[in-house]
Amino acid sequence: MTAFLLMIIYLAFISLGLPDSLLGSGWPVMQQAFAVPISYAGIVTMIVSAGTVCSSLLSDRLTRRLGAHTVTAASVLMTAAALFGFSTASSFWMLCLWAVPYGLGAGAVDAALNNYVALHYSSRHMSWLHCFWGVGTIASPYIMSRALASAGWQSGYRAVSAVQLVIGLAVLFSRPLWKGPEKAAEGRAGKPLGLVSALRIRGVPQLLLGFFSYCAAESTVMLWASSYLVRTRGSSETRAAAFAAFFFIGITAGRFLSGLISDRLGDRALIRTGTGVIAAGILCLLLPIPGEGAALLALLLLGLGCAPIYPSIIHSTPGSFGAENSQAIIGIQMASAYIGSTLMPPVFGLLANHIGLWLMPVYLAAFFLLMIVMTEWSARAASRRSESLFV
After folding, report:
1. Which one in 59, 79, 100, 316 has a CA-CA gap of 20 to 30 Å to 85?
2. Phi, psi (rounded to 5 degrees) for 122
3. Region at 35 (left for phi over 0; alpha for psi -120 to 50; beta for the rest)
4. CB atoms within 10 A of CB 200
5. Are 79 and 19 in contact (CB under 8 A)?
6. What is d(CA 113, CA 59) in angstroms, rounded to the nearest whole number?
7. What kind of architecture, by CATH, is found in domain 2-189?
8. Which runs of consecutive H residues, i.e. helices, occur in the chain?
9. What is each CA distance from 349 to 18, 63, 197, in whole angstroms?
10. Helix 360-389 crosses helix 204-233 at what angle (to 10 degrees)?
11. Averaged pLDDT, 175-179
């Protein structure tokens, strides 16, 4: 039964990744259909991000009251409805309207499932959980490309909505698997911690800043890797788009591989190891080696290095700050992640306009350095806190 529940949770995380790359895949056609500037995709993603931040911050209150199962099922079904709404949009303002429930649903399921797995499963399963998110992000562009070749972008959204609906119903009817003393306690025990109270816990502010830094750097690579290859390495636009996939391949494969060793090494060692691999990737970008080879190796190393960091930070949260506080803290972590991934890539774009895209490895190095300093500081502060509780 535990293994079957884990399969349901993995499916739910595929559903979280499916819509993430759907808008980008369909936007070149959607932009023409709605007769809006190409930059308007950023408006939609900003609305989605605002919704995810709000629902992440509310996840502790919702999960304590309703339980992880109800929050997950409702959130997946909400995103299914929102994606179907996208397919019915006849003007741009309708896209913006449907982006609200999509963002709210995505943030709630992200925080609830991350905390549930952190509490009840090993580090290995946390790594594989995020590997399945990668499966979703890889699948949806393929779905959209098939739709564009046959029936149009609307059918792409309807197809993903149908998949979301099936996954949502599977989660909904799996309620008996979630029951039990420790699971039922999640929905009722204690009072919500609250943002201010969480920030007063020793080590939490540093952890949030470290997580913000990691997500800022990761999203910068996702958005700007292709442009970097074109402008600094002389790649064609077509080759750069294909080569940028090296980062996604590295991060997805790396999460699968890190799951095989995570229980042996532990979360903190995985974070340090990942940071070391990232440093090697940044060094490959900084070295004055002409051509694409070094840059491609760098993207693969960056993906492999990033792979264990996100799931390891999440999985270590209950052990560092207490199971009773983990849902609130993980919810705030999700909010900080979305803020970092939404705001910092455009900031780099502004810097690149005035300085140049060659700045990207320096920009990444600054955020990854801040990340490792803050996560180490947080781990030591949490350790001192734990020791003081037993004095």
Report:
1. 59
2. -80, 170
3. left
4. 11
5. yes
6. 10
7. Up-down Bundle (1.20)
8. 2-17, 22-34, 41-57, 59-66, 68-88, 92-120, 123-150, 153-172, 175-178, 181-188, 195-199, 204-233, 237-243, 245-265, 267-286, 293-306, 309-321, 323-354, 360-389
9. 26, 37, 35
10. 160
11. 81
Say which CATH topology domain 198-389 has: Growth Hormone; Chain: A; (1.20.1250)
Q: What is the pLDDT of residue 191?
A: 67
**Nearest residue to 245 via CA among 296, 281, 314:** 296
Pick left, alpha or beta for residue 37 (phi over 0 → left; psi -120 to 50 → alpha; otherwise beta): beta
Exposure string over 35-71, b if 16+ CB within 10 A, otherwise e: eeeeebbeebbbbbbbbbbbbbbbbbbbbbebbbbbb
- Asked if 2-189 and 198-389 have one fold, the answer is yes
Ramachandran region of residue 121, left (φ > 0), alpha (ψ -120 to 50) or beta?
A: beta
Delimit the domains of the chain by residue range: 2-189, 198-389
Residue 180 binned pLDDT confidence (cut-offs 50, 70, 90): low
Residue 274 φ/ψ, nearest 5 degrees = -60, -40
- Nearest C-alpha neighbor of 333 from the set 243, 238, 237, 201: 201
CA angle 195, 336, 267 (to 5 degrees): 100
Express each pLDDT in 11-24 by its tens digit. Answer: 888 888 888 777 77
Residue with token string 């340090």: 272
Measure the CA–CA gap between 254 and 326, rounded to whole angstroms: 25
Euclidean distance between CA atoms 193 and 331, whole angstroms? 11
